[in-house]
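One-letter codes give the sequence; each number marks local geometry. A record appears below:


***
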Amino acid sequence: MKPLKQKVSLTLDEDLIAKLRVLAEDCDRSLSQYINLTLKQHIAKLEQQKSI
């Protein structure tokens, strides 16, 4: 069976990480969960814009 998630390593700006941590905490999510959710939403928005 295929794993549902893969580990990756990213290098992000310190100020971005700080903001993401606050936003993740506000949504009661881990930083990883929040980044994953945010990227999925962004990609869905881009795909929707392409189909217009």
